[in-house]
Known about the structure:
The chain is an alpha+beta fold.
Amino acid sequence: MTPGTRDRAWLATHLPHRGDMNLLEGVAAWDAQRIDCVATRHREPGHPLRRAGELPVAAGIEYAAQAVAAHGALVAEAGGPLGAGYLASARSVTFHVRRLDDVAGPLAIHAERIGGDAGGVLYEFCVEGAGRRLVEGRVAVVLDAGDRSLPGAAA
């Protein structure tokens, strides 16, 4: 995997998530199949996904979705065609904690592409922090009908 190649400024210009909704701090490493990201603002009182003073663990799915979006942008930037995508589903999600805002230190978000074709892509993900797994599962992304190309996809 390629180490430490993208920071928050790059994410802000390559992902659709703007302002406070851009949850990731940076990309720690990535290759054609995987991405590792870091997030550090999960403890902030003004976090946009906080509810009733807490950041619910379900917000980990959004962290994973943003890591997947970053992976798609990196693959496209490296010369592999990848159209815009839309989160279609989250499946087999397991929550190991109740909330994320009480996790000390940064969050590590890992996503690995486990399948895909011209219509979409499937990733496994996990979010870790403080030496433990916090949430894990799979997310499916449907590629925009206007550009359904995907590196390695069957025609």
